[in-house]
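User: Structure please.
Assistant: Input sequence and predicted structure:
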Amino acid sequence: MATIHRFEDLEIWQIARRLSLKIFKLTEVGPASKDYKFRDQIRSSAGSVMDNVAEGFERSSQFEFVNFLGISKGSSGEVRSQLYRGIDQQYFPSDTSELTQEYQELGGKISGFMKYLNKSEIKGRAEV
């Protein structure tokens, strides 16, 4: 694998960023936009996925990076759960099953990356 020097170059961060934007757009209109607590929580969780990838990458060790990736994966699951809550409350004007699936796939990619790093000989700076 080529060395990556910036978190912005990580595929999982790029996907998380794209999905976070989808969540923001989804909650701009309709009933979800008026339930401020729900809207803010799902937006925060979506942002947390990408933010924890970035924060972990910027830490000083592979161990810390993997730890933050675990938090990121957890936030990905939290977004999925909140999407189901939004469906149950009829907050969304359209089907969110594709977005739910994208978050599930992202969680799998994060998990796979964690496994790669745990098997890696990299022990210092979190550049991969």
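The first helix runs from residue 11 to 26.
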